[in-house]
């Protein structure tokens, strides 16, 4: 849904047709990053922040990307951060598929005495929703 929403909002930028095509093709090979920020209590909802990589063609000193036409989509810059990353193949669309990978990464960090921000899960998926085989995903921990 988010993949379609962001790519669709870009495709309606009529005055930027050539640049639009470049952004649409870039929606596929770059990571879709989902950060899960847990709610304050056991019955509070978590926040999911889904981000797409903006290609270098739309980064300074070049012209910025088209502005979103929906309040649900916004542009933001992330600071430079240090991540511990564990990659794995397949579909990773449910917590049951993600949790073992997060636990593996967390155990590794604990074993090697590497400190990270607790309870802050970040998932990166590198494939469009229509790719059925040879998919690649990553779970990330922000290292302190």
Task: State the main characteristics.
144 residues, alpha+beta, five-stranded antiparallel beta sheet, 5 strands, 26% helix, 22% strand
Write a compact overview of the structure shown.
The protein is an alpha+beta fold. It has helices at residues 2-11, 17-26, 95-111; strands at residues 32-37, 47-52, 83-89, 121-125, 136-142.
- Total strand segments: 5
Please summarize the sheet with the most strands: 5 strands, antiparallel
Q: From the helix content, strand content and strand pairing, which structural class follows? A: alpha+beta
Q: Give the overall shape.
A: globular
Order of helices and strands: HHEEEHEE
- Mean pLDDT over all positions: 78
Discrete helix count:
3
State the end-to-end distance: 33 Å
Strand percent estimate: 15-25%
- Unreliable residue runs: 8-28
Radius of gyration: 17 Å
Strand order of the largest sheet: 2-1-4-5-3
Q: How much helicity do the residues have?
A: 25-40%
Describe this structure in words.
The radius of gyration is 17 Å and the shape is globular. Mean pLDDT is 78; it is low at 8-28. The two termini are 33 Å apart. The chain is an alpha+beta fold and 144 residues long. It has a five-stranded antiparallel sheet, with helices on one face. It is built from three helices and five strands.
